[in-house]
Design the sequence.
């Protein structure tokens, strides 16, 4: 289902008589009260504009972001279920995540990350949410109710700065097949001078490229492997599911790949519940 994009000047508030939308101010605006937050962001060219809010309570959280004619939401209230959804803002019709949507969320996350590591809970939740959704596959339904009960995630904080075995599956390879399994270094280290983001050990040397399921590549590191969310960011949640999703999108599949949908689905309760490791 397609969606109709809103006008460039998204409505933050409207005059009751004219119904004229209030333009979004260039740059970032935040009303951050710790447990609650509202704000907007527009880049220098106003090519991307966002309206967002976030609230964290003892029972859970509620996050909403509007951009590109789309609204995405995540909510949990202690009922044992995390609900997340995405829909066309003007009519509520179902929609899908596009590459431009993922790029926009990546840009917003970078701006929110610049607010520093000591962010309040509402801001921390918002940027964890936008960072995770910047990896949302275009082939996966945005609407889901995810159980968040006992053992909803498996944190691997104790494995940070070590190599762990990661795996994924597709129609050609099962989990723990040698061609879909290797050892990756869990860390907050970026890749350094590596445009592809991750280094792989091949032919007795580290090489910066993306292998497509070879049986002779057994080690990888870089680009904050194992961290929940895209690349490196402010959150330091490391879990088995996030590591396995990274193993999928960096070993022959793209972020938008259908083959990594199941791995991505398994990460959603992780970023919602897992503690920061560092």
Sequence:
């Amino acid at each position: 289902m397609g969606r109709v994009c809103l006008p460039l000047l998204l409505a933050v508030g409207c005059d009751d008589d004219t119904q004229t939308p209030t333009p979004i101010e260039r740059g970032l605006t935040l009303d951050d009260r710790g447990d609650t937050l509202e704000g907007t962001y527009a880049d220098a060219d106003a090519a991307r504009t966002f309206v967002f809010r976030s609230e964290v309570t003892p029972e859970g959280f509620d996050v909403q972001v509007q951009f590109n004619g789309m609204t995405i939401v995540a909510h949990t209230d202690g009922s044992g279920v995390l609900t997340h959804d995405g829909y066309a803002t003007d009519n509520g019709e179902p929609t899908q995540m596009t590459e431009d949507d993922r790029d926009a969320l990546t840009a917003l996350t970078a701006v929110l990350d610049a607010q520093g590591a000591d962010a309040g809970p509402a801001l921390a939740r918002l940027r964890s949410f936008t960072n995770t959704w910047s990896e949302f596959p275009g082939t996966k339904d945005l609407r889901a109710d995810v159980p968040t009960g006992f053992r909803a995630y498996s944190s691997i904080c104790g494995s940070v700065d070590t190599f762990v075995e990661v795996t994924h599956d597709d129609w050609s390879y099962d989990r723990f097949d040698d061609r879909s399994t290797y050892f990756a270094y869990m860390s907050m280290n970026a890749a350094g001078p590596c445009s592809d983001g991750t280094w792989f050990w091949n032919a007795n040397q580290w090489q910066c490229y993306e292998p497509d399921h070879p049986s002779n590549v057994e080690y990888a590191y870089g680009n904050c492997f194992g961290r929940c969310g895209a690349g490196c960011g402010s959150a330091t949640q490391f879990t088995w599911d996030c590591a396995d999703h990274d193993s999928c999108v960096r070993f022959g599949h793209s972020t938008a790949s259908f083959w990594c949908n199941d791995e991505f689905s398994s990460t959603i309760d992780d970023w919602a519940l897992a503690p920061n490791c560092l």
